């Protein structure tokens, strides 16, 4: 039993020993593997370190070169600056030398002047001595004699100087008087003139003035030529003035400029595009306005052309009175009076609306607004009572109906109302209209605009039919006819313009 137990113990011990030896051998191999792996990693790390070291050396070298180049550049700048300073020092030294020479020159001149003054004094004393000896005068008497002679010789010069300054004083007095009169006139009529003859356009900034003028004035020339108005750009901040006697033309010009300023693109081609668009919009606008007037008054529809002309009366003035406001006033008064007298109030109202319809066309066609208005209404088959009212309100015919008589009476009442009309403006607008009519009557004239408050007439001719010499003769012919037929203050500039355009399309 004991021997069996000893055998088992010995067997266990032998097994443990064998297991120990096996484990020890395995651990030794694993250690060798780990050691070899660690050595390999260490070699890789050493290699990477070497690469990083080389890259760092290269970067340091590049940085040294860049820094050296920068230093060289700075040194070059410093050298240039030193050269510039040295040059300036040389210039300063030259200037100081020249200044010194000039000072010496002035001193020499001063000495010469002192010497000449002394010589002059000695010469005067000598002449006085000779004069006193020759004519038995003392030096005091001789001196007095010479001064008297000099005074007599200078009298003419003095008189000329006096006349000169008297003339200057007179001119200044006239300017002052004119200024006072202008101030008084401005206070009395400035608001009226501004309302009737100008529109003010507000700009976002003063820079837009330069853009409106354009390079070498191309934009403002294109605007004035196309729109037929005078564009005034002065020192008033953020403001330009559109001037012209034709209200419709002026309203279109104002709208065109406002659109161009808002859009920002201002050049001749763009100006033409915007003008065409605004012109069409205004045509539609005046038609809509005429249509709305008929609707508000409860009138039956008119022909489209009559409706358009009714709306256009808003942009027409007669003796300072707005034509549309006058028309509506006459229409309402005529309607009330016809109703009181037992007539047709709607027909009287319609006759009142159309009695001055010719005024919407006189600025384009010329002639009597009575004849133009009557023919216009006949063309579109308006009631004969309306035709009679148009002729009768200016005495061309006797009123044949209550409605015609009501229109005549209402027209007189509207015109006679205190403050309704101003004769001065009407004579002015008639004068500038006459200028345009004279120019348009000439052959090959395409457009004519009276601008600059009637002091200039701008005439645009067909460049294919009128050459430069003919343009000169045309301007003289128009100026001669204006002198013969128009009463005006100061002078009127006749400006004939011929322009050739070449247009092609890339397709």
UniProtKB/TrEMBL annotation:
CDD domains named in the record: HDc, KH-I_RNaseY
Enzyme class (EC, first level): hydrolase
Membrane-related topology note: Single-pass membrane protein
Gene3D superfamilies: 3.30.300.20, Hypothetical protein af1432 (1.10.3210.10)
Cellular component annotations (GO), alphabetically ordered: plasma membrane
Subcellular location: Cell membrane
Coiled coil feature spans: 71-133
Domain HD: 323-416
Entry keyword annotation includes Oxidoreductase: no
Molecular function in Gene Ontology: hydrolase activity; RNA binding; RNA endonuclease activity
Primary localization: membrane
UniProt record similarity statement: Belongs to the RNase Y family.
HAMAP family named in the record: RNase_Y
Protein name stated in the entry: Ribonuclease Y
Native organism taxonomy: Bacteria, Pseudomonadati, Campylobacterota, Epsilonproteobacteria, Campylobacterales
Gene: rny
């Amino acid at each position: 039993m004991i021997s069996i137990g000893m055998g088992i113990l010995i067997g266990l011990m032998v097994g443990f020993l064998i297991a120990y030896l096996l484990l020890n051998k395995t651990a030794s191999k694993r250690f060798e593997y780990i050691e070899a792996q660690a050595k390999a990693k260490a070699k890789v790390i050493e290699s990477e370190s070497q690469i990083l070291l080389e890259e760092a050396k290269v970067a340091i070298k590049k940085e040294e070169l860049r820094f050296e180049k920068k230093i060289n550049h700075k040194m070059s700048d410093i050298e240039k600056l030193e050269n510039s300073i040295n040059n300036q020092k040389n210039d300063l030294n030259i200037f100081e030398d020249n200044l010194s020479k000039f000072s010496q020159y002035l001193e020499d001149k001063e000495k010469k002047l002192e010497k000449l003054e002394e010589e002059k004094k000695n010469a005067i004393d000598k002449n006085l001595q000779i004069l006193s000896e020759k004519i038995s005068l003392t030096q005091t008497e001789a001196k007095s004699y010479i001064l008297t002679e000099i005074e007599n010789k200078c009298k003419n010069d003095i008189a000329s100087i006096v006349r000169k300054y008297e003339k200057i004083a007179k001119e200044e007095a006239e300017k002052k008087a004119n200024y006072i009169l202008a101030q008084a006139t401005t206070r009395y009529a400035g608001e009226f003139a501004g309302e009737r003859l100008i529109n003010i356009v507000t700009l976002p900034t003063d820079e837009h003035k330069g853009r409106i003028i354009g390079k070498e004035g191309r934009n403002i020339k294109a605007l004035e030529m196309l729109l037929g108005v005078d564009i005034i750009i002065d020192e008033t901040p953020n403001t330009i003035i559109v001037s012209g006697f034709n209200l419709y033309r002026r309203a279109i010009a104002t709208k065109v400029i406002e659109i161009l300023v808002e859009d920002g693109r201002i050049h001749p081609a763009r100006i033409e595009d915007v003008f065409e668009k605004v012109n069409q919009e205004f045509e539609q606008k005046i038609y809509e306005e005429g249509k709305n007037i008929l609707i508000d008054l409860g009138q039956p529809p008119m022909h489209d052309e009559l409706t358009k002309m009714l709306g256009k009366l808003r942009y027409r003035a007669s003796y300072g009175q707005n034509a549309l406001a006058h028309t509506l006033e006459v229409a309402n008064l005529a309607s009330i009076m016809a109703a009181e007298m037992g007539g047709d109030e709607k027909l009287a109202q319609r006759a009142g609306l159309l009695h001055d319809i010719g005024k919407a066309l006189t600025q384009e066609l010329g002639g009597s607004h009575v004849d133009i208005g009557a023919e216009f209404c006949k063309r579109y088959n308006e009631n004969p009572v309306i035709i009679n009212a148009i002729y009768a309100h200016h005495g061309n015919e006797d009123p044949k109906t209550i409605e015609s008589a009501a229109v005549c009476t209402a027209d007189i009442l509207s015109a006679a109302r205190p403050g309704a009309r101003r004769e001065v403006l009407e004579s002015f607008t008639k004068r500038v209209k006459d200028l345009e009519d004279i120019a348009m009557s000439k052959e090959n004239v395409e457009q004519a605009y009276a601008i600059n408050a009637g002091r200039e007439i701008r005439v645009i001719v067909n460049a294919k039919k009128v050459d430069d010499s003919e343009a000169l003769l045309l301007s003289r012919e128009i100026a001669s006819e204006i002198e013969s037929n128009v009463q005006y203050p100061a002078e009127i500039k006749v400006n004939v313009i011929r322009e050739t355009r070449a247009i092609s399309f890339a397709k």
